[in-house]
Amino acid sequence: MVRVLLVGNGAREHVIAESLSKSPNCQSLFSFMKANNPGITRVSKKVTVGKYSEIAQIVDFAVENKVDFAVVGPEDPLNEGVVDVLAKKGIAAVGPSKSLARLETSKSFTRDLLRKYQIKGNPDYQYFDSLQGIAEFIASLDGVVIKPDGLTGGKGVVVQGDHFTNTQEALAICEKYLAEYPRILVEEKLEGEEFSLQCLCDGKTVVATPAVQDHKRRFDGDTGPNTGGMGSYSYPDHLLPFISEGDLVEGLAITKSVAEAIFQETGELYKGVMYAGFMVTKKGLMLLEYNARFGDPEAMNILPLLKTDFVELCQAIIEGSLASLPVVFENYATVCKYVVPKGYGLPDDHPYNRYTSTKLTVGEVGPARLYYSSVDQKDDGIHFSSSRAIGVVGIAPEIEEAQRIAQNAVMAIGGEVAHRSDIGTPELIAKRIANMKKIRGA
Ligand code: AMP
Ligand code: GLY
User: Residue 228: CB within 6 Å of ligand 1?
Assistant: First the structure.
């Protein structure tokens, strides 16, 4: 029986908390959160609300409660070095050290690692700390994407054709970013369909979880600004209708090579989640980015399907025994939809950001699972903040039913909130399949 520390307060951490607390091997859960998530609180023995930058407070909380290990949900505490400080106190974690979290926090670290170790999947790229040479590099490519080289929550990436058109506009964006970040990455624009492959790694063994497709754009039809993710789906066979078994094998092979390269480069074993954002393109699988944690929303698609005991899985990651643990997921379809404040992802002065009430009501959600994110349980009910509020998940043998379950649940949540009704619908999935056919030139 173990005592576990969970760091994080989103819907991703709510589903992690559920997976931990339902394990017969979990004696008690201790949760450190930035805001009081009622779903996590309900399954925790004790909670503390504080800042992720207050590492000492997190570590004191872990030590006082004699936890056996920690699970770190979000990237911010990883970037603050919480895993390193816990290790000094003899507490192991599912989550990489600050140095290895560069896999997510430094896009140039990851791109250079793939280049140095000749791992497939890098687009053409260069990074810059001044405007010098950017125009020439842009001229050598058909289209570009500009990314700040730091933690931006997926929101700082701008794509030619979507967010800007010509070199002049690109340079203006680069100039703006260079005033905020030490470096920017300019890379070749890729065309294709994206999917998330969240892998578990004990430093040596890498295990894939079901492939998931997230939806980053704020509005139906993949329009509007990029967000942290509006919802996601997965298929019963753990593939997606536009990817082949071969694509998945290739994705896992890339992540295995990256885990090996990390060890060769740093001498440290990566213990945690290596979540790759891949794009299936004409040229094969290309890597958009790695995250050093589960995806949010994608964790809500895979963890409810996990048949393997999650505490045992965490222990295998920490102890380096993942090779001898069967990791099994049920063969169901999942559809996750995020209920968000109407103004989520939009500029502060957007008319959608003028709320008269931040209160939510949750009606009859049927068989859907409900995972709380940025909400606060107050005496008069549940209030939302400026971030994603509730993730609802439909799970069923077929995607159509999973979609209906999620959509019905979303409609039962009242307040000045919004969602994407198209996620997991046959129409949107058919569009993805057609796009992929066009791209592969079939
Ligand atoms: P990232 O945070 O790097 O995953 O980027 C966020 C989003 O920007 C991705 O999910 C893609 O939709 C888009 N994106 C990033 N890199 C590229 C690229 N090289 N080509 C086309 N789109 C990209
Ligand atoms: N779903 C995007 C992310 O977790 O970064």
Answer: no
